[in-house]
Specification:
The protein is an alpha+beta fold. It has 8 helices and 7 strands, in the order αβαααββαααββββα. Strand 5 and strand 6 form a beta hairpin. Helix 1 packs across helix 2 and helix 2 packs antiparallel against helix 3.
Length: 236
């Protein structure tokens, strides 16, 4: 029996694991919140968020792709008609994992995984615009102060430090992986530092890949030196 490249396998084999994750995703969409072990919650999270991404497209091809995982047509209908519209303004981060302690008996760490159904507030929607405006204001103030300073070169290190603090490990369009493996808001592309390959949500290897770095777009990943996996095809 082949072993997974990273992390423990759920169930006895690959087929059992796929069915287990499919059932977990189905229950999550049906009840909006389920209690399970931390390991299962972390493994079902990327699958559930990818299915929600398909549901937000809303076309027939996306519905058929979701039906290959979630076999209950009533749950798929609820996903496309209720959950996806509620997530329309949210760019990623569709689920939330909350640790609730250990289970009695085997002392397994438990967690609650739930859908984030709260509407995106205007404050959250304008965070990126505010950050961009702050960067522009810093650059403009540094440019105005440079001719008046006795040593113009002294203003450059401050500007460099501000820009470096906002950039990820591979530029402004990259982010380091988080401890719980959650996708950063607006960075759906997974990158693997060892193989220097990236995977988009449409990649057949997307769910099996553990992100070591996240990119905003595939172009940003290629600019950082990452390449698409051989034989990858677009889902569109």
């Amino acid at each position: 029996m082949p072993t997974p490249t990273k992390g423990p396998r759920l169930g006895g084999g690959p087929a059992h694991e796929r069915l287990l994750l499919s059932n977990l995703a189905t229950q999550l969409f049906e009840h909006r919140s389920i209690t399970t072990t931390e390991a299962k919650a972390k493994r079902v999270r990327p699958l559930a968020e990818r299915l929600i991404t398909f549901a937000k497209r809303g076309d027939l091809a996306a519905r058929r792709r979701v039906l290959t995982v979630v076999r209950d047509t009533s749950v798929v209908h609820f996903l496309f008609t209720e959950i996806a519209p509620a997530m329309a303004e949210r760019q990623g981060g569709y689920t939330r994992i909350t640790k609730i302690g250990n289970r009695k008996g085997d002392n397994a760490p438990m967690a609650v995984i739930e859908l984030v159904m709260e509407p995106v507030t205007a404050k959250k929607a304008t965070v990126k615009e505010a950050e961009a405006a702050t960067k522009r204001a810093v650059k403009e103030s540094a440019a105005k102060a440079a001719p008046e300073a006795a040593e113009p070169v002294a203003a450059e290190p401050e500007e460099t430090v501000v820009e470096a603090a906002a950039e990820g490990p591979y530029g402004a369009d990259s982010r380091e992986a988080t401890e719980d493996g959650a996708m950063p808001d607006g960075y759906p592309v997974k990158g693997n530092k060892d193989s220097m390959k990236y995977h988009t949500p449409e990649s057949p290897w997307y769910d099996k890949t553990v992100a070591e770095v996240w990119f905003r777009t595939a172009e940003a990943a290629e600019a950082a030196g990452f390449v698409a996996p051989g034989g990858a095809k677009s889902d569109d």
